[in-house]
Amino acid sequence: MIVLGIETSCDETAAAIVTDAREIRADVVLSQLDDHTPYGGVVPEIAARAHLEHLDGLIRRAMAEAGIGFGDLDAVAATGGPGLIGGVIVGVMTAKAIAAARGLPFVAVNHLEGHALTARLTDDVAFPYLLLLVSGGHCQLLAVEGVGRYRRLGTTIDDAVGEAFDKTAKLLGLGYPGGPLVEKAAARATKPARFELPRPMLGRPGCDFSFSGLKTAVRRHVEELGGVLSDTDRDDLAAAFQATVAEVLADRCARAIRGFKEDHPQGGALVVAGGVAANKAIRSRLSTLAEKQRMQFVAPPLRLCTDNAAMIAWAGIERFRLGESDPLNFAPRPRWPLDPTAAPVIGRAGVGAGVKA
């Protein structure tokens, strides 16, 4: 089975060719980083226009790299949500056009499910497993019990962890995107334990997260330093922030592991996925936790942690070989929870957290 995957949910335009033998025949990604950096974040209109301009060319390139034509495809999969709706529409409409013209099945993939199933593409991880999904817009702990079967154990009550990285980078004057820049600054720190930061939710019952207070604490340290940071200040504060995030994530995962093992005594892997999973300090902390808990630890290769179309093609394969596909009148979804039965979490601002999911 050969599937074309298309990803346009945010600021990467991507196309990939993947087979049901877990072979990535082509995986091309065009970053829009230069387009959005001047604004300090993703501008939805700019992102949608870039997808529209470049997607057709990326699909042609992926097909050429894979050495196939449209007649060799068995299905077309595209991110159907959640994400910036303008970009999602571009990808979905392109996939529908190919499917209609070639008489192929169309599969609308939940972007989060793409991340959730990446470990099965890269490491053939068996169900069930515990997933920490961490990205710019999402922070969730989920029991992954099968394709389309996700049980949320915890979520953020305010900011996603990737969002906290971006905001901290901005406070430190590092620029955008925040995740890799904070990680680089932290690696240069000479006194990583110099600054004390709160550990939000550490040791609390349940598996929920909170990062808003941590971001505020960083801002207060910046203000105490007069608002003008030396390189040493910046690096040490970045290291303190990163270490705190890693500790909080490990604490929440440890609690989730206990609940997961009660429901699945036969065990399973601890999987981390999403853009923040590319952070080496966080991967190391979670790997140590999994070893102590006698669980397999799986983190996708760095290039498959950030948004990509290979994960979308694979999620399409997982669904298609179960006999699932979608009609051509499928409506793109800006919000699409993996666990629609999970109750909304009310954060400090009195609004439902995790609504981006």
Report on the architecture of this protein:
With 357 residues, the chain is an alpha/beta fold. Helix content is 42%, strand content 18%. The protein contains 10 helices and 12 strands. The strands form 3 sheets. It has a 5-stranded mixed sheet with strand order 3-2-1-4-5, sandwiched between helices. A 5-stranded mixed sheet has the order 8-7-6-9-10, sandwiched between helices.
Residue stretches low in confidence (pLDDT < 50, at least 5 long) are: 348-357
What strand order characterises the main sheet? 3-2-1-4-5
Largest sheet data: 5 strands, mixed
Oligomer: single chain
Kindly report how far apart the N and C termini lie.
Answer: 30 Å
The total of beta strands comes to: 12
Q: In which range does the helix fraction lie? A: 40-55%
Label the structural class: alpha/beta
Helical stretch count? Answer: 10
Taking all residues together, what is the mean pLDDT?
94
Spell out the helices and strands N to C.
Answer: EEEHHEHEHEEEHHHHEHEHEE
The value of Rg in angstroms is 20 Å
Strand content: 15-25%
Gross morphology: globular
Summarize this entry quickly.
It is built from 10 helices and 12 strands.
Would you spell out the secondary-structure blueprint of this structure?
Elements: E1 2-7, E2 12-19, E3 24-31, H1 33-36, H2 44-66, E4 75-81, H3 85-102, E5 106-110, H4 111-123, E6 129-134, E7 139-146, E8 149-155, H5 161-171, H6 178-187, H7 212-224, H8 231-263, E9 270-273, H9 280-292, E10 297-298, H10 310-320, E11 345-346, E12 352-353
Helix pairs in contact: 2-3, 4-10, 5-6, 5-7, 5-8, 6-8, 8-9
